[in-house]
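Why show two proteins at once? Because comparison is the fastest way to build intuition. When a single record is shown, students tend to memorize it. When two are placed side by side, the eye starts asking what differs. So, the first record is below.
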Amino acid sequence: QVQLVESGGGLVQPGGSLRLSCATSGIGFSIYSMSWYRQAPGKQRELVAAITSAGSINYADSVKGRFTISRDNAKNTVYLQMNSLKPEDTAVYYCNANHPGNLLLNYWGQGTQVTVSS
């Protein structure tokens, strides 16, 4: 059974930091590309950051220089360090696992709420 469990969300003031974690089980984590998406109320889900099995990384322009994605293959976990948070970063953040050779092997976590507000 595949599970992706996000944690680390919460309420933070503008300029603050949060670290999201996504613990996985039931997949060959090391070969999967891992991504973080977010969805704000009334908006489409958007890609925030992604990291491949080889360690290649890309970010949305809106978070470059503020967010850092990383992975620990020994712990089957992907992280998103979020610094200098802004109110517009408020959203539900979702973890995604995608097998590079099989589009059918695509999994989502349940999401974790991040709220940036004073």
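Second record. Ask yourself what differs from the first in the token line.
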Amino acid sequence: VQLVESGGGLVQPGGSLRLSCAASGGISHIISIDVIRWSRQAPGKQRELVATISSGGTTSYGDSVKGRFTMSRDKSENTVYLQMNDLKPEDTAVYYCNVHTFSGNDYWGQGTQVTVSS
């Protein structure tokens, strides 16, 4: 299973972006999904968990993005989204989508670059 992230780019502080994550064959075809995550990694920093959505649809967010980012899943489109509002320079990073299954499998995408700069 290959995940593909898209939607990254250059945006000014205060701006918005919506990231998408899709899978070859569709995310819904991945068996026994436990949780889908968005994480990010800035240069020289450890990977940081940004948002998660459980198989039941419950979302949770890292403290640094609460109130600004919203994660959602469109099962009809087999796509997961990360709506990012009020972006800050410290949000600059490569953003990754990850699917974790109950059987312990993890699927990752290649990431999409988000740069917040004036």
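One difference worth noting in the second protein: The chain has a mean pLDDT of 93.
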